[in-house]
Amino acid sequence: MVVVVGGVPLEEPLPDSTTLIHLHPGFRETASHFIAIPSKIVGPVGLLYVQQREMAVTVPHDKNVSIIGTDDVTTCTVVVLRHTGSGAVCLAHLDCSVAEEAVANMVSRVQELAMGYQDGRIQLHFIGGYSDQHNFTEELFYNLLHFFHKQPVEFDLVSLTLGELNTTVRNGIHWPIIYGVGVDVKTGDIFPATFPDKGPESALRTARYLTGGHTGPQLLDVYDCGLGLLRIGPFNYHPMRCVDLWLAQTDEFILQHLSTSPEVEPPHFVMNMRATLKYIQEHPFPAVTVFRDNRPHYYRRDEISGTWTPFRY
């Protein structure tokens, strides 16, 4: 099948983002409108936070989740899929390691939740990523567009807020404008957002991609909307050599060597990296020390506080 823009299928060879924007100037207008929306600070109540190399899928009548979101996006891209008939929505935070299998899994999960709805199409949104000096965003976008184009279903590409459309210049340096995205699962509204609370076990989840290797799915599905449970693991990651030496380095060293975009990272980047490195130091083999029974860590929404609490399933 194909990716469709304004009712017209994209032809192969697929264009890069600059060409696509030139051919379909409506993307510039929708991006400008999106960027103009004031960014919301979203608290933990009703939030399902998705980290890098994670995805989550749910439906409008989910009583446990009202917003799916992610932030700290620089050279990564957020993909939102939404089925217009059922309202089933998927949000994924993707980097250049993404594979076609991960995209196929996203599509499959949305189709599962939309089963039984005769009407409706799958809308596709790309948000985040900017005109970085290494072209990471452009490479990622092209790969994603190619992967979606190969799926056995049509997608309506509705918005494209990345690359040049998500870039501003300060003192000669390119910066992303949008760092975070939220989706209202009941209405499907997408909006710029930041999330001070990153959800349970943030350091463990960050360690999974920081170490550069892991077992299990490349894109981790962190939510079971049928059970209303946030699900982490089980997985293992490669031991990180010389983690003690990493922790002894200066903040500037960590920023320069652990980021794909050190000039534009948010202020808390180094603090989060140090917390993750400390976690890796304490748990070099999470399959042994974290997931001792080879079972996921489950969390359910507490009815009183509205936040995620551990749950033995």
UniProtKB/TrEMBL annotation:
Entry's Gene Ontology molecular function annotations: protein-N-terminal asparagine amidohydrolase activity
Biological processes, Gene Ontology terms: ubiquitin-dependent protein catabolic process
GO cellular component: nucleus
InterPro entries: NTAN1
Domain of life: Eukaryota
Leader peptide range in chain numbering: none
PANTHER family linked to this entry: N-TERMINAL ASPARAGINE AMIDOHYDROLASE, PROTEIN N-TERMINAL ASPARAGINE AMIDOHYDROLASE
The protein, known as: Protein N-terminal asparagine amidohydrolase
Organism: Nesidiocoris tenuis
